[in-house]
Amino acid sequence: MIKRGLDVKLNVKPIFLGLQHQYYYEGPCRFAKGEALTPEYEAILAQELQKDFFKLCEERLPKEAVNLLEPVFLPCCDDWRIPEEAFTMMTTDKDEIDVFMMSGGIARSGLLIELAQRTKKPIIQDPATCCDLTAVTAVIRNMGIECAAPLTWEGVAVQMRVWRVRKALKEANVLLGVRFDSNVSKSANDTFLSLERATEKFGTNFRFINLHELLDYMQPLPEGGNYTTPGRLNTPNITEEDIKEAEELADELLGGADEAGISREAMVNSCKAYVEVKKLLDFHDCCGFTVPCPDTCSTRRINEMQFTFCLTHSLLNEQGIPSACEYDVDGVLTMLILSTISNHAPFMGNTNPLVYLEEENTIRPMRRFHIEDLADVEDLTNLYHSAHSTPNRKLKSIDGENLPYAVRHFAYDQGFGAVFRYDWKRDKGQKITICRISPNCTKLFVGKGEIVGGGDYDLDNCNGYVVYRVADQEKFYNAQLYFGNHLPFVYGDYVKELEMLGEALGLEVFSV
Question: Model pTM?
């Protein structure tokens, strides 16, 4: 089964700690007068307050990110007892609980703090809790236990979305097509220094598949088994039914394109690769994918089979299933973060600064960039360029309508390898958020930009680029030197959420 980051929900346990004095009396623990000092009044008030709190939890917590567990109302009395039964009531479903959503206050903080000590689970407090927000949070945090105290319900929702991403990373399995080395491609080194370190840090697990077996699966099982596994007849090869699905998909994509510069036969070949990879993701219970492009290319089997993985990456990403070029495992996890926090499909490409030559008032020449594409851009400073043939149709919302697109081919001479094209110029002024984890899993790059243009819409091969402006190109570039070439991004501003995620993951955040 494919369980995307977007399918993960945070299990939240709402608990209301009511305060009910047992007698009428006055003094430094009473702040009312008249009838409000009676036990009967406080019992009624506690019932009303707990209903209001649980209603707010239902209304204000993000439904796409949170699963509310059975709420608990726990009266606390002025005898200062902390009965064992209280913890039994609060932790009945302790194995499911990810976060405690607490509403407490004066004379109830000891119970809340002990709950944190016992369970070691994150605590988040009702914004209306008043002075205990800081007092309790300080104590719990200094115990080394997570405790959040947002000032608003909007802040509570943001914190929940951030913690959900962390859970999604922990529950993710990523499928890696391997030829030479399971940790890094021979042709590119944009990835983690150690997959074991990534698992230790984020909880993500990796599943490996031999590249040649993967390629064998992309044709129906021959008599006697695949070439790489002779005699084995229970392999997940593509079936005639799968091929029919690929043909229908090819017709749909060609029919929906503004321009289609590829033959139907070549389109079907790339769609077969997508259908098979998605089948394998389901087979291995994975929600992310990458494969070493040039390492695979040099086997010459891609040329023989007349396809590339570009379309696979695009189609998976627009479903919220992160899929990266060039065996960029780091990119897969980063795109998982971005798609889960935003519900937008990410884009990842080769990312470079466009160096401005002040004396000539132009950009230093660079491969896959044409200054003519910026003819209407007056300010040529602080620009960045990102290029790959893997844009998608869901940049503005994974659940939204498809954006306009074209389909071209990768191989210049033979015309195979379907690739999407998107005209980035139509999104001038669009804010984007850029992100990447460092190779050693200790840092998080968080950047923001604004699209100013794009190019190579009408070209084949690994072309198609977006240009965006950053606040300070030199600062941005110096930070990038700690993270690598590929810098995935999504539409929208998620800087705050990513900075919070970096803190929650124990990463040093480079915010530029």
Answer: 0.94
